[in-house]
Design brief:
By secondary structure, the chain is mostly helical. About 75% of the residues lie in helices and about 0% in strands.
């Protein structure tokens, strides 16, 4: 008997907490056609997967890949592949602005990383060309010190 009373109290508390949380929800419901809703959810899942790939790439020191994923999957150049112009018609202005800010931030991140990564990558190409031609051999430790996979 005591177990059932505890269970009922727990259920009542859970329902009360859920109801009060729902009452405080100030988000705006965005109505989308079913197909568009599925497309948007797919895009958002891909955005999360891309962020995960960026973090993994950065963690392993592969900044070039982090920048590439950021631009291709989240940046401004990804808008067409995500069908952004079709989706924007259904979004309230605030949601549209948040999405645009996210895409711009990803492109800025990619550009900043590329500014840091490109000179060492270009140097690496020169070193590789010279090593393979047999003319000059440069010490590889210089590339490892900056902590980037090239």
């Amino acid at each position: 008997m005591q177990k059932s009373v505890k269970a009922i109290i727990f259920l009542l508390l859970a329902i009360t907490c859920t109801t009060s949380a729902a009452d405080n929800d100030t988000r705006q419901l965005v109505q989308l056609p079913k197909m568009m809703q599925e497309h948007m959810m797919s895009n958002m899942r891909d955005h999360l997967a891309a962020i995960n790939e960026i973090l993994l790439s950065m963690g392993s020191g592969d900044l070039y890949m982090a920048a590439k994923v950021a631009e291709q999957r989240l940046g401004m150049s990804s808008l067409q592949s995500h069908g952004a112009s079709q989706m924007a018609k259904y979004m309230p202005e605030g949601m549209r602005q948040m999405g645009t800010n996210m895409h711009r931030a990803a492109s800025r991140f990619a550009m900043k990383v590329q500014e840091k990564v490109e000179p060492p990558r270009q140097c690496h190409q020169v070193i590789e060309e010279r090593v393979s031609s047999g003319h000059v051999v440069y010490p590889w430790w210089g590339l490892m010190v900056i902590g980037m996979k090239l």
